[in-house]
Amino acid sequence: MASLIRSILHFFVATLQLPPPPQQLPAVADDLLEEIFLRIGSFADLARASTACATFRRLIANRSFLRRYRSLHPPLLLGFLYAEPAEFQRAEAPHPNAPAAHVLACAAGFSFDYLPLGTWGRWDPCDVRDGRVLLKSIPAGYTGVVLADLAVCDPVSQEYLLLPPIPDDLLASVQVQEQNLQCFEPFLVPSGDDEDETSFEVMGRTYCATKTVIFVFSRCSDSWIVGTSTSWDALSLNLIPGDQGETYHYAYGCFFWRLGRGNKLLKLAMNKMEFSIGDLPPVHNEGRIVVAEAGDGRLAMFSQTYPGASVYYFTSMQNEGEGAYEWQMESMIPLPSNYKCSIKGAAEGYIFLVGTSKGRDTLRAVCFSLEIKTLKIERVSRIRYGYCYFYPYFGFPPSMSPRRI
Description:
Elements: H1 2-16, H2 25-38, H3 43-50, H4 54-60, H5 63-72, E1 77-82, E2 87-90, H6 98-107, E3 124-129, E4 132-137, E5 149-154, E6 159-162, H7 168-173, E7 183-188, E8 201-207, E9 211-218, E10 223-231, E11 249-251, E12 254-258, E13 264-269, E14 274-279, E15 288-295, E16 298-304, E17 310-317, E18 328-334, E19 339-347, E20 350-357, E21 365-371, E22 377-383, E23 390-394
Antiparallel strand pairs: 1-2, 1-23, 3-4, 4-5, 5-6, 7-8, 8-9, 9-10, 11-12, 12-13, 13-14, 15-16, 16-17, 17-18, 19-20, 20-21, 21-22
């Protein structure tokens, strides 16, 4: 590959007949090399290129280059990680990522049996992001709310970190008592483009009858802090305790939660660490929804009413002031006709749908991806069964990033 790139450089210089002065050649060569590297379609090939020589590694490992590369090449969808018990289901042929998914499935330790047992035994995945897996340990069969043991793991290197518990004095500082909690939802925070691959943050969202609180764990400090807290009264909400069953949605540096089965959307803006309330289209109070990025600063909302052979697609500009979002319906997307499909979630520019066959084999379920940019629906793989919960697994973990190889 190095000889090919040198030949390309010689061709450009000969064609232009403007050989730069020797002291300017490295800068010109770097620009041309970056343009060539940006056209490498595979993350794995990019990592291989970075091992060819010190110059290639320096250019590819540069944060500004990686930021440009990620903007042009979305992360690879490699499969799904089941929540309970932990098990990896890789993307299957004819999906284009099936070969890379097979390599990951052979190399990674998705059983997590190399972690020491938690307080209550086994570890179950509860979030996946940037190639890392967040795991929790809770009492088996327990139906209440508990502040779970947490761990973050790189399944390829099998490196892990056991997170400390949230200190009692930190809980007391925001008038939170574990026995009164009605939710503890831990999740990973998306890493920024300029962050080191070894750093990460975990959030724990809790709520009770009077308030909701965000706790934040930082790998840099190895400690928990209170991110923000607010009362339901301050948000002008008459909340019915325990009516927030859906998990979070993420878009444009904000987390979103649907409140109950109504049309209220709770938003946490990460840059301000502030909560606010918005409205969903009232006609879609029932059924499953997901919120994601539509591009150009617009929010996307996909909604499905049951039973339904289509998904409604809405967009809205984010409203930083008071009042409702201005949702506009873009289209109705027909779903695969041979399956009964339901929305499961969204990540990295895709909506995920689980379909069960309308034929004789009603126990077999498959997962489809719906690309938001193109609205293309593609079969990814079989899944365990139609009602299982899973987390999409994209890209490779930090130990396999070009900066670390």
